[in-house]
Amino acid sequence: MKQALASVIANTRVADGVFIIRLEEGDQARDVRPGQFVHVRPGGAAGPTFDPLLRRPLSVLRSGACSTNDLPPEQYEVLYDVVGRGTDLLSHLRPGDLADILGPLGRPFELHKSTRHLLLVSGGVGIVPLVALAEDSLRKGISVTLLAGFRAANKVFPASRLPAELEYVLATDDGSIGHHGLVTSLIAEYLPWADELCACGPAPMLRALSSLERPRRFPIQVAMEERMGCAMGVCLGCVVPTRSGLQRVCRDGPVFPLEDLRWS
After folding, report:
1. Rounded distance, CA 41 to CA 57, Å?
2. What CATH number did the domain enclosing 238 receive?
């Protein structure tokens, strides 16, 4: 983990209200692993600001440390959806500006050594850590299918920013593109092919995975999305119930085995 001022290389709109910001900070780019996140202090051309007070936790989309993409090794990308003041401030950053970044943080995905067919399931911006995982897995010779759900076509992550070897299957709530309905309704078709499943998205989507009919001991990992204060395990603002009691998403997660979680 490192706190640093990262240089903004690009800040590109890729869907309705959705941006990818490319940052340059060598240590963070080399250290980040799929599933980890960074804690970003919003700001603009004048530099980082304490208004709003809290940082924003954002998962890392891609890192130059992965040889399957075109990023230099000292750069990484973060995707965010503009939903409030903090992310709106981020959307106004331009190349040459500095962003105050703390990270990488949290526990990453760790695939079983025997996995050769990986099924990924995302909801909305939950696609972000799964893109990093897909790139890393493809580099290791693992076949990957990504089932991605969005509200509508104007929110869809562009296929042009994904590896060509990745099978990308879309679902939208309104049927404007891909399958009409919840992304979880697609899982049963692909589950017999998969050795392991990893997911990230809203809590109802992750909860639905618990009722999947699947082979015994079939591994499922999920990356949790929770609001955070410190992101270092001190404030206890992001705890979730697990079989081992309350655990912190920022330090004990954000990646958990599905069977360890308790749903209230």
Report:
1. 9
2. 2.10.240.10
